[in-house]
Specification:
Distance between the termini of chain A: 27 Å
Shape of chain B: elongated
Strand order of the largest sheet of chain A: 6-2-1-10-22-21
Number of helices of chain B: 14
CATH superfamily of the largest domain in chain A: FAD/NAD(P)-binding domain
Helix content of chain A: 25-40%
Structural class of chain B: mainly alpha
Mean pLDDT of chain B: 92
Mean pLDDT of chain A: 93
CATH class of the largest domain in chain A: Alpha Beta
Radius of gyration of chain B: 22 Å
Oligomer: heterodimer
Shape of chain A: elongated
Radius of gyration of chain A: 24 Å
Bound molecules: flavin-adenine dinucleotide, iron/sulfur cluster
Largest sheet of chain A: 6 strands, mixed
Chain lengths: 473, 367
């Protein structure tokens, strides 16, 4: 389709069967499915082409149930184990009907994805523990997004970049018109069906401040700056039922030097279990060795968010330096602890005292990074219960940490057909949702690696099929 | 030695990649990178020469420009490879051939063409070029046997010496720490001959845009194996002439002619395709500064193949004399330019693949 063909004007409002709002995984799965069902489809992506794909382009895998080895997935991962994992991380704050439906549908995802251009690879080095449960995308999420855009283009989905949906005008529980700013020009679209897949609101710092106050200013957003939540807020203001706790979000501790937006995976730091972590005042505040990092990284974002100035510092010595993946930002190194404190901007005497107190409390044991070992502290508060080794071998290394927000959980309520529910519990007439904007239905809190993409793909396909069916009736 | 800007940029990008590793499935570069934590200049030279420039990791990169991280591995590695071609040139003063390599290749070709034509005119009887020649030894009526073999032998041996010196210097700096075992050598060469790493992890590469295909790989095969077949043709012809006493030209179904015809066709198809791909492909991940040299070598190979095939087709006509001189002029410049053109990438790529095989084995003896 030529670029000129995409120049729509306000004087010629285009009518489409299915309008998809958003340009990430959830939106693309919906658009492709709807188009394959015979509907005319238009997809509106707020980002310019170069930054299309929202948070989805930062991902690397998706969690899929399988009863026997399948493609890159080894062994088996059955419905009940999947459900147990979900129950554990959410502490029960989930919806069993929607969750089980998602889990069952996840079994068919890899083959559907392959058929639509996505390639897989064996699990990445350092993530072997996920090889059984998660299928990794060859080249990561951007390669996946590229493949879906190609497929959508080939099928004839009309794609508009630089096009922000500002309002879904609802009357009598139905979307009547959609207001867009497309490449700087206003545009109104009158679609038969609408699928919203516009992500969370984590990039809207002002909105985060409503719940987190000033602290939100110090948050770093790991993914797209386009997750402004405009559509979400607009819908919640028109009688759509909300789901999820607005304070809840997936937040991990990342390198404080990360860019404000879109730093993605490389800003992560996994040195915490082998370090001590101190706050702005040089004090420890939590057990760094409580459990393996993959099981703990998601609580550290919140922990740091609750410290003064939302900053913390991980300190290791030369012994520990090789135990974790290199960070993308250079290690801050010094020959003595006070010198390191100065480089980090901490009070040298305070940090020195904290390290000395910690070193004195370390109880000798057999260090083993691959298991919950017996290296711990004694008589220290808070304790460090595993991997506690004295910090005594220069050079000493420090990394600054800040909360990195992955996505927010507040969303719109849906049913198993992906229909958006109104406050009275009835489904809206022509509105479906998929992806982060509805993930809170299933993830009340906590997170299961690879589940975000699973939810978006499953609900995207359901929403696309239902929206097309309604539009063509 | 101070590090170049390109080297510093390559290190910056590899440090980002090493914290990301999403591209691990595409090629040998990322697993090789993941075996390191810090990147010396030699490591980066090795990684750059291991890269097959398939573009896969550019299209897949969430940090590609205009992201502020600006990761563009194919382009940066192409520029770094070109620096290594200069660094390992022998003799060193000729490293300058890689600055504006397109001009060097084109002018060397022009000079050698003109040289051969002038020499034929000057050294043979009047009208030799303008008529056909037939029967055994016909070629030598145009270019005397001693001159042809003498010049070919001297230039070829010099080029082989220069390539070998470059290879030795490359290996000393950027080769594997321990001497590779024969298995690693076999594996490395197999990877080079199959272009396994141009498979993009199985489905092909981003030859010209976001779509995956194996076009580039197959075109390169056509070109490389075409080149080898032509080389084999020349070698068998030399063997026939020296040892069997059967001077060229040979019958249509003789080994040298069949090999030459097949090789020439492969070269022609491969280079045409690769030139076309280079023209239509997205430039965002390409090092356009180096296009001159790339196009020049492809063009020279194309001309050499085309003139050879034309000679075969028209060897019974009056055009034969001129065509033979032109063909030999082109072959001469090709021989001369082997160590001072994009051709050298084959040598360093093969060595890098051997180091990769050796390092993989050292890291995990079961592979
Ligand atoms: C660094 C990182 C790594 C991650 N890794 C994984 C992983 O490996 N596996 C996994 O399952 N999950 C992962 N996640 C979570 C995952 O990214 C999300 O769960 C998933 O991508 C959500 O898809 P989505 O389509 O709902 O949202 P997005 O992909 O964020 O798409 C939202 C889209 O909507 C567009 N948009 C927003 N507002 C508007 C508007 N008003 N008008 C028009 N368009 C609009 C945005 O531009 C964007 O294109 C990761 C997240 C991050 C940040
Ligand atoms: S090229 Fe980009 S996506 Fe690939 S490994 Fe490097 S940083 Fe990651
Ligand atoms: S071979 Fe391809 S994927 Fe590998 S580094 Fe080079 S361009 Fe990137």
């Amino acid at each position: 389709m030529s670029e000129i063909g995409l120049q729509l004007t306000a004087t010629h409002p285009p009518n489409v069967d299915v309008l998809v709002v958003g340009g990430g995984n959830a939106a693309l799965c919906a658009a492709i499915t709807a188009r394959e069902a015979g509907a005319s489809v238009m997809l509106l992506e707020h980002a310019p082409r170069e930054f299309r794909g929202g948070n989805s382009r930062h991902t690397r895998n998706l969690r899929a149930m399988h009863d026997r080895p399948e493609g890159v997935l080894v062994d088996s991962y059955g419905e009940d184990e999947y459900w147990d994992d979900l129950l554990r991380v959410t502490g029960g704050e989930t919806n069993e009907e929607l969750a089980r439906m998602t889990i069952r549908a996840s079994a068919g995802l890899p083959s559907w994805m392959s058929a639509h251009g996505v390639h897989f690879q064996p699990s990445l080095t350092g993530t072997l523990s996920l090889g059984r449960t998660n299928a990794f995308f060859l080249g990561g999420g951007k390669a996946l997004v590229n493949a879906y855009y190609r497929t959508a283009e080939r099928l004839g989905v009309r794609i508009l970049y630089d096009s922000e949906v500002t309002e879904l005008r609802m009357e009598e529980d139905a979307v009547r018109a959609v207001t867009v700013v497309s490449r700087g020009f206003p545009l109104t679209i009158l679609p038969r069906s609408v699928v919203v897949a516009s992500g969370g609101f984590q990039a809207n710092i002002g909105w985060l401040e409503e719940y987190w106050g000033e602290a939100a200013k110090n948050f770093i957003i790991r993914g797209t700056p386009f997750a402004q939540g405009t559509v979400l807020r607009n819908l919640l203001g028109q009688g759509v039922q909300r789901v999820g706790d607005p304070v809840q979000c997936h937040a991990v501790a990342i390198d404080a030097r990360a860019p404000k937006f879109d730093g993605g995976i490389v800003t992560r730091l996994d040195c915490v279990p082998f370090s001590i972590v101190v706050d702005r005042d040089g004090n420890r505040f939590y057990d760094e060795g409580e459990d393996f990092w993959p099981k703990r990284y998601a609580i550290w974002g919140r922990l740091v968010a609750l410290r003064p100035d939302q900053i913390a510092y991980a300190v290791v010595d030369a012994k520990a330096a090789k135990l974790f993946m290199p960070s993308v930002f250079p290690a801050i190194a010094a020959e003595t602890i006070p010198e390191l404190a100065r480089k980090l901007g901490l009070d040298p005497a305070r940090l020195d005292a904290t390290v000395m107190r910690y070193n004195a409390a370390v109880h000798p044991g057999h260090f083993d990074s691959t298991k919950l070992d017996d290296c711990r502290t004694e008589g220290l508060d808070p304790p460090k219960t595993h991997w506690a080794q004295r910090i005594d071998t220069p050079p000493f290394i420090g990394y600054p940490l800040r909360p990195g927000i992955t996505f927010t959980y507040l969303g719109v309520r849906v049913n198993a057909r992906a229909e958006v529910l109104m406050e009275d519990g009835r489904p809206a007439a022509n509105l479906w949702a998929s992806g982060e904007i509805m993930a809170g239905n299933i993830l009340g809190r906590g997170y299961l690696a690879g589940f975000g993409m699973t939810i978006g793909t499953v609900f995207g396909r359901v929403a696309g099929a239902e929206a097309a069916r309604r539009a063509r009736n | 030695m101070p590090e170049s800007d390109v080297l510093i940029e390559a290190r910056r990008e590899m440090e980002i990649c090493n914290a990301c590793r999403y591209c691990e499935g595409f090629c040998a570069v990322f697993p090789a990178m993941a075996r390191e934590r810090a990147f010396s200049g030699a490591d980066l030279t090795y990684l750059a020469n291991l890269c097959h420039n398939c573009q896969g990791c550019y299209y897949a990169c969430q940090y590609a420009p205009p992201h502020p991280f600006g990761v563009n591995v194919p382009r940066t590695f192409a520029l770094l490879r070109e620096e290594s071609y200069r660094r390992y040139s022998w003799p060193q003063p000729l490293a300058r051939a890689f600055e504006s390599n397109g001009f060097v290749v084109a002018s060397t070709t022009a000079v050698s063409l003109a040289g051969v034509l002038l020499a034929v005119v000057a050294l043979t009887e009047r009208g030799t070029l303008a008529r056909g020649h037939a029967g055994p030894g016909a070629f030598y009526e145009i270019v005397p046997w001693a001159a042809m073999t003498g010049v070919a032998l001297v230039t070829m041996l010099f080029s082989i010496l220069a390539l070998a010196m470059g290879a030795a210097m490359f290996w000393r700096e950027a080769g594997s720490a321990v001497a590779p075992r024969s298995r690693a050598i076999v594996r490395g060469l197999r990877d080079a001959l199959t272009l396994r790493n141009l498979g993009g992890g199985g489905h092909g590469c981003n030859d010209s845009d976001e779509a995956f295909s194996q076009r580039r790989r197959y075109l390169h095969h056509a070109m490389a194996y075409g080149f080898l077949a032509c080389f084999a043709s020349t070698t068998t012809a030399a063997f026939y002439a020296y040892f069997l006493g059967r001077p060229a030209p040979y019958a249509l179904f003789s080994l040298p002619v069949v090999l030459g015809a097949i090789g020439g066709a492969g070269l022609l198809a491969g280079t045409s395709g690769l030139i076309w791909l280079k023209i239509v492909s997205n430039r965002a991940s390409a090092a356009e500064r180096l296009f001159g040299g790339d196009f020049a070598l492809l063009g020279l190979l194309w001309l050499a193949a085309a003139s050879g095939l034309l000679l075969l087709g028209l060897r019974t006509t009056d055009a034969m004399g001129t065509l033979l001189a032109i063909h030999l002029g082109l072959i001469l410049s090709l021989f001369l330019l082997l160590p001072y053109s994009k051709f050298v990438h084959g040598v360093y790529r093969s060595l890098a693949l051997i180091r990769d095989a050796a390092d993989r084995h050292a890291a995990d003896p079961t592979v």
